[in-house]
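Morning!

This is the sequence you dropped in the shared folder:
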Amino acid sequence: MQNRLHFISGLPRSGSTLLSALLRQNPRFSAGMSSPVYAFFRAMLSETSNRNEGAVFVDDAIRKRLLTGVFDAYYHDLDRETVVFDTNRGWTTKLPALVELFPNAKMVCCVRNPAWILDSVESLIRRNAFELSGIFSYDSGGTVYSRVEGLASAGGMYGFALNALREAVYGPQSDRLLLVRYESLIANPLGTLAAVYAFLGEDLVPHDPRNIEPCYDMLEFDLRLGTPGLHDVGRKVEGRERPTLLPPDLFKRYAADAFWEDLTLVPPTVSVV
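The structure's back. Tokens below.
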């Protein structure tokens, strides 16, 4: 791939859309909401595996060219000087392959107090009281307990992302990771951006966290998912305090998942801001 490529991953509802919006203020950067490239990448891996009888004609060198070609094709129209940030929560599961394909790539992982992640989804569900969300397979039943259980399951939106993050953090390529705390991004956006730039080895440019441009493609995506507001980003970075919607037992249980808050649990190769 001709462009310099990095990845944004981590946990849902943890600031990746906001971080992308801030990064887009740099005219050299291309960043957006979750892209389809991860799905294309997985499909290419599947079709070149032994599940396909034609794989007998595909060796690792061909496979690598095909996988790299997925990125080349998708980002073909960008100027070669553009720094690309591809976003998907699944990229943490593909870190070994990504490092081999793109030796200079790094990964920014957005994290947040897990109890507030789950609370944030619950808040959206209650706000859209007459919509059925694709997050829960358009099920019209359920309670806050069943919804949280589904989100936190191994295949759930939060549970999968947390396990994928742990896999990367405790894996051999952990030096490629920067964990960006949502709380840091909201409280000190300019300082957090400076840390991101330093991690990537890029020259810092001015940013304006009080004048964020919306991305209208996100509106259509959220409407199709039956969850309006899922990727909403305000015009400026600001914290909004409110009481949690989760019952106290749920909040306490999932707040304990924030392993990155205890730096003794984080390998020294992993940067946290």
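Headline: The two ends are 29 Å apart (CA to CA).

More detail when I'm at my desk.
O.
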